[in-house]
Design a protein that fits this description.
InterPro entries: Ala_racemase_N (IPR001608), PLP-binding_barrel (IPR029066), PyrdxlP_homeostasis (IPR011078). The protein is of the alpha/beta class. It has nine helices and eight strands. It has an eight-stranded parallel sheet with strand order 7-6-5-4-3-2-1-8. It starts with a helix and ends in a 7-residue tail after the last helix. Bound molecules: pyridoxal-5'-phosphate. Pyridoxal-5'-phosphate binds next to strand 8 and helix 9.
């Protein structure tokens, strides 16, 4: 088995074991492999190993990879900060946007999607005090949820978050679960929780995550930080 196949199998085994320990079904969980900074050849290899969901955080890189791998049945998840003027281009290849954090971006994505099937979006929470990190402030969750429900070309799946650096992951994901409940009080169908990365996906599963965004634990080290 290649190193990549090995790492994928070992992460998947941990996901399954953690789900079992949490009394959850493995099929409730979507494992997204974050391939940013890795070459198209690695994404192709992942596809050959049966991976269907891949994540990217930069529009130019994502668009180039999606175009080159158009013939493969991959779902592209956009997980990075997104500028409004890229909304149309991102809708052309993305199955979902996990980083929806403001009404203006939602409006731009909506306007770009008249003739397209609805785009899955996750409302990104900012768990830190640093506005530069992206994500909506906890205070703004209800307002943005209500706004998203007025945009028929977007389908609000749930919330997304990255644990704050240095914080205890389990308590971070407990906060995410609480925010998810607030969203669901307004949007009952928005049950998904996109949380958990290479270092903390186990804690995320224990706190109810449904979409895991896992990079380096599967892909190996990235050549550029990010
Ligand atoms: C890079 C990235 C990931 C994956 O990070 P790893 O630590 O490599 O697993 C997940 N989510 C987002 C938003 C990212 O930018």
């Amino acid at each position: 088995m290649s190193d990549l196949a090995d790492r994928l199998a070992s992460v998947d085994a941990e996901i399954a074991a953690t789900a079992r320990a949490a009394g959850r079904e493995r099929r409730e969980l979507t494992r997204i492999v974050v391939t940013k900074f890795h070459p198209v050849s690695l994404v192709r290899e992942l596809a050959e190993l049966g991976v269907q969901d891949v994540g990217e955080n930069r529009h130019q890189e994502a668009a180039a990879k999606a175009a080159e791998l158009e013939s493969l049945a991959l779902r592209w998840h956009f997980v990075g900060q997104l500028q409004r003027n890229k909304a149309r281009a991102v809708r052309a290849y993305a199955a979902s946007v996990h980083s929806l954090d403001r009404a203006a971006l939602a409006d731009a994505l909506h306007r770009a999607g008249d003739a397209l099937p609805p785009l899955d979006v996750f409302l990104e929470l900012n768990l830190t005090d640093d506005p530069a990190r992206g994500g909506v402030d906890p205070d703004g969750v209800e307002h943005l949820t209500e706004h998203l429900l007025t945009l028929p070309s977007l389908r609000l799946r749930g919330v997304m978050a990255v644990a704050s650096p240095g914080a205890e992951p389990r308590s971070e994901f407990a906060r995410v679960r609480a925010a998810s409940e607030r969203v669901r009080a307004i949007a009952p169908d928005a049950v998904a929780i996109s949380a958990g990365m290479s270092g903390d996906f186990r804690e995320a599963i224990l706190e109810g995550a449904t979409h895991l965004r896992i990079g380096t634990a599967i892909t190996g080290k990235r050549s550029t930080p990010g």
